[in-house]
Amino acid sequence: MPVSRPWVALALACASGAALAAECPPLLQHELPKLRSKEVVDFCERFNGKALVVVNTASHCGFTPQFKGLEALYQRFRKDGLEVVGVPSDDFFQEADDDRKTAEVCYVNYGVTFTMTQTQPVRGRDATPLFRELAEQAGKAPRWNFYKYVVDRNGQVVASFPSKVKPDDPQLIEAVQKALAN
């Protein structure tokens, strides 16, 4: 009679999980709750091997209309492997207190289809680990809402842009194309 060895299956599952983590760059080894959802965005699972534009957003900011440009950027390059990730933050006191209102601004007012997370801190000691890693690689933390990080397919920040740089700016487009080429 064969002996059941559940520990073998467990060991194999752990080993394959460790192998996946080893293949996933440190920048992507994060999870954030998705906006107005019970889902969690696993960055390794969703974005490994893709170029990213990660941007801290706010619903009540003079730069909020950039959602439209970010959506256009996403639509233009998504078939090439670009993902845009919006991370609402109240670090500059311009985000709604209620995720329903944040979602309404993003999804209803601006037609956002790219990934949006729940509100997170993005600077200082309280910054979410994703933004600590982005700031470390770029040498800069967000100074205001709609600060943009462009990340290549290998999980390396290739450029960062302040709030005033719009999503259709030629320098940002060039950085996206570079990130997609890596």
Automatic annotation (TrEMBL):
Pfam families registered for this protein in UniProt: GSHPx
One Gene Ontology molecular-function label: peroxidase activity
Keywords: Oxidoreductase, Peroxidase, Signal
Gene3D superfamilies: Glutaredoxin
Claim: Secreted is one of the keywords in the record: no
Gene Ontology biological process terms in this record: cellular response to oxidative stress
The protein, known as: Glutathione peroxidase
Lineage of source species: Bacteria, Pseudomonadati, Pseudomonadota, Gammaproteobacteria, Pseudomonadales
